[in-house]
Design goal:
48% helix; alpha+beta; Muramoyl-pentapeptide Carboxypeptidase, domain 2; 25 helices; Leucine-rich Repeat Variant; 8% strand; 4-stranded mixed β-sheet; 605 residues; globular
């Protein structure tokens, strides 16, 4: 027995020794192997270790296992790349415990809080590489659950397939350059299920536009899989995970899917839902665009469902009203915690219902808790002129930069003399060193001055543009002066430009700002005369001015003439020119102007 045991030990030791030897050899890099076609290894150099050849190791890992490991690695990397939340949104402990997501406002102009990453890649659902690298793999929890459920159902019915995703949204939501509606976490793109030339499932690397013969325009061997895509739509319309508001797809594919549903014997209810939900859009010839309704939690946080309310979907208005009442009661409750009160104040603001709480909001501007003060400022913004003086008073004594930002945010929405005086007082405090310089605070001040220019801003700007405390913002202060005066100095040095501005102001301070604007446009090469309808073509040309201040003032003049609500100053010059040119070109007879020399994008013909 003992001898047998010793033999086993001897055999195992030999096996270990052999494995170690093989391991040492396998550690050589492929650079040690001579290239193909080179001279054979001679016996004279056979002892040179750099020229040894070794049999490659066998692959003990199956392709499926390797794929799972790769997926796990990519999921971990995606989670590591999730940045912190950039927007201020007050949540309760219960919401933080649930890692809750929120869709705020609508799908075009809204944003998202705590967006959740899609669990991709997986064995049944993946985001395509192009969209994954864009960092737009986020949506609300409800939307992610809808995608996951749909992908699982499709994979169960068609095991060889994977549901590929296109654009979702940024973690914080907001605008993405690839779509105008993926802002608030309730929109996402699903790629078409496709077949290759052999009829097998095709793994797409990007979206493929489908022609009327159901062939990919880029490759006719890739075709639209009508069976699977019809099953996908049927699954989306019959699930109970998240209520769908729209599915957008091009007309000829929509018609084909409906015919297939009829051929399958679809019920009247399913066809009714299809007709109401699946909408034709020419731009969606390479994917399905899915949009869901606001969840109950989203409604209480300010989510807004625009457009169609399907008859089978519960009316959100009673839910919204109940939320407003709940938030207002929270403000009156004596035992409410600060975090709950801050959340209630902010959500009243986001819902546009803060005015219903009235003076109860303003009293919290002086609360001991900083979050409550900040949330009160957010809510006060919708109270109009009545909130300007209390906000200005709080701003004079507030020392925390984040709360100053919230107050300034509320003030910059109010174009009044009182708001302007509060902005000027804050600029004075920054210049004198009474307030520590903060880039974000300064940005808010510059934004108010440039978006609501007034003659009263000229003197304080001239007084503070060279202040040592404001040195980091000198370029912005110079730009603000150019916008207010519509006078662009050619001087390179700020000190020289300041002398020019002071001389200009002494000469023009008694004139109305409309005269400043006209003179500035003429000096820049745009001979406007009245800033009325007849000057629209010149103002459209001025939007393209190389001087940013001239472009700003041209856009504000066009906005005033058109009475449009959109603030184009935050857009690119190209988008602003397109926006205003299209508006006025379509209404040329109404404004009695001739824009036949340019297309709707503003490009000269």
């Amino acid at each position: 027995m003992r001898k047998s045991f010793q033999c086993q030990i001897f055999v195992k030791l030999n096996v270990v020794a052999l494995l170690l030897c093989f391991g040492c050899g396998a550690a050589r890099t492929e650079e040690s192997i001579p290239p193909a076609g080179s001279a054979p290894i001679s016996k004279d150099v056979s002892t040179d270790a750099t020229l040894w050849r070794h049999k490659p190791r066998p692959n003990y890992v199956s392709d499926a296992m390797r794929e799972r490991w790769t997926i796990a690695h990519l999921e971990a990397r995606m989670r590591q790349n999730m940045n912190g939340q950039s927007r201020v949104f007050f949540t309760t402990q219960n919401e933080r415990d649930k890692n809750a997501t929120f869709s705020i406002y609508d799908t075009r102009d809204g944003y998202m809080v705590n967006g959740r990453s899609v669990d991709s890649p997986s064995l049944y659902m993946r985001q395509m590489q192009v969209q994954y690298e864009r960092g737009i793999a986020y949506a609300t929890t409800e939307f992610i659950q809808l995608l996951d459920h749909t992908a699982r159902v499709m994979h169960k019915k068609y095991p060889e397939t994977i549901m590929y995703l296109g654009n979702l949204g940024l973690r914080d939501g907001g605008d993405i350059p690839y779509s105008i509606s993926h802002n608030s976490g309730r929109d996402g793109d699903i790629a078409f299920y496709m077949k290759d030339e052999n009829g097998a499932f095709y793994h797409p690397q990007n979206m493929y536009k489908m022609n009327r013969r159901f062939q990919a325009k880029a490759n006719p061997n890739i075709t639209f899989d009508l069976e699977k895509n019809t099953t996908l739509i049927e699954t989306l319309l019959t699930q109970n995970v998240a209520p769908i508001q729209f599915i957008f797809v091009v007309r000829h594919l929509r018609s084909a899917i409906r015919r297939e549903l009829v051929a399958r014997g679809a019920t009247e209810e399913l066809l009714m839902r299809f007709d109401a939900t699946v909408a034709e859009q020419a731009a969606h010839d390479d994917h399905f665009h899915i949009r869901i309704y606001c969840s109950d939690d989203d409604i209480c946080a300010g989510c807004n469902d625009r457009s169609i309310l399907h008859p089978w979907h519960e009316d959100p208005l009673p839910k919204r009203e109940a939320c407003v009442e709940k938030h207002i009661k929270t403000l009156s409750a004596k035992k409410t915690t600060s975090e709950v009160r801050a959340a209630a104040l902010q959500r009243l603001a986001l819902m546009g219902e803060a005015q219903r709480a009235g003076n109860r909001i303003l009293k919290y501007l002086n609360d001991d808790d900083g979050n409550v003060r900040a949330a009160s400022a957010m809510a006060a913004a919708s109270l109009g002129q009545a909130a300007v003086e209390p906000l200005a008073e709080r701003l004079r004594v507030e020392t925390q930069p984040q709360i100053q930002l919230a107050i300034l945010d509320a003030l910059v929405q109010n174009d009044s003399e009182q708001a302007a005086q509060a902005i000027i007082a804050t600029l004075d405090r920054l210049s004198d060193g009474q307030l520590a310089f903060d880039t974000q605070v300064m940005d808010k001040i510059i934004r108010h001055i440039t978006h609501h220019p007034r003659q009263a801003y000229v003197e304080p700007l001239l007084a503070h543009v060279m202040a040592p405390a404001l040195e980091p913002a000198r370029a912005d202060l110079r730009f603000a002066l150019e916008v207010v005066t519509n006078h662009v100095s050619d001087a390179q040095e700020l000190a020289d430009a300041l002398v020019e501005w002071q001389a200009w102001f002494e000469k023009n301070q008694t004139k109305p700002r409309a005269t400043w604007l006209i003179d500035g446009f003429k000096h820049a090469g745009f001979p406007v005369t009245t800033l009325q309808n007849a000057d629209i073509p010149l103002l459209l040309d001025a939007v393209d001015s190389p001087h940013r201040a001239i472009s700003y003032n041209a856009q504000m003049a066009l906005k005033s003439i058109s009475h449009l609500e959109q603030d184009s100053l935050d857009w690119s010059v190209t988008d602003a020119r397109w926006h205003y040119t299209r508006f006025f070109k379509r209404r040329a007879k109404k404004y009695k102007i001739d824009l036949s020399d340019r297309d709707e994008r503003g490009r000269k013909l």
